[in-house]
Amino acid sequence: SRELGISVGTVRKALDEMEGERLISRRQGRGTFVIDQTSNEQAVRFSSIRDPDGIRISGTTETCSIAAATANEAEVRHLDLRNGEKVFRLRRVRTHNSAPLMVEESTVPQARFPGLAEESDVSPSIVVLAHRYGVLLGRAEEKVGVAAATHGDAQVLKVAEGSPLLTLDCVVYAIDGRPIEWRVARCHLQDNHYFAEMS
Questions:
Q1: 134 vs 34: CA distance, rounded Å
Q2: Strand 179-187 to 99-109 pairing
Q3: Which residues on neighbouring strands pair with residue 144, listed in sequence order?
Q4: What is the SS3 assignment for 16?
């Protein structure tokens, strides 16, 4: 506060806001620490699937494809884009303990991730991608539902067509409040479960 010529209260308020945005963590008696946005803990922060022991999992990415496209009506609405804006569409298949877990389709604005399609190794994590492109992530909103497995999903997830799948419809926002990724996943949970913590 002395260096910047501001009150201690203003510094405390700024630290509170940074902690709320997961930029720093404060530990009683130890100090204040900058959070590594690419750490394993941060990489799975938008995943609410847990194994039978309650450990958070996001799965191992088996395949990941990327395609450039013009945003469709749903993408425009979810990502707050203008008609005609360009996006990248990513499709991932994730496994856990060698068993198919999830088919995931996500869309990100090309303007926020220029050159993503040319990368040889596209990270499956929006946290890692955002860090690489200088985007700070804030929060996410996720809708949970159930859907019957289509023929394609049934083949990938190794379930019978029509089997119930957990659906996760998630929008991840940058720290400035703008949507940065729209992701829809269909999950065959087996012995795993979805966990929501409320306070």
A1: 16
A2: antiparallel
A3: 168
A4: helix
Instruction: State the residue for tokens 């191992």.
Output: 60
What SS3 state is found at 17?
helix
Give kind and range of the element (H or E) at residue 181: strand 179-187
Contact 167, 145 (CB under 8 A): yes
How far apart CA 68 and CA 125 sit, in angstroms, is 18
Q: Which positions ≥6 away from 84 have C-beta within 8 Å?
A: 70, 71
Percent of the chain at pLDDT exceeding 90: 46
Find, among 194, 190, 134, 199, the residue nearest to 167 by Cα: 194
Q: Which residues pair with 61 in a beta bridge?
A: 94
Cβ proximity of 163 and 23 under 8 Å? no
Reduced to 3 states, what is the DSSP secondary structure of residue 128? helix
Q: What is the reported pTM? A: 0.79
Please say whether the beta carbons of 104 and 125 come within 8 A.
no
**Exposure string over 75-84, b if 16+ CB within 10 A, otherwise e:** bbebbebeee
| Residue range 92-150, pLDDT digits in tens | 999 998 899 999 999 999 999 998 888 877 777 888 888 888 888 888 999 999 999 99
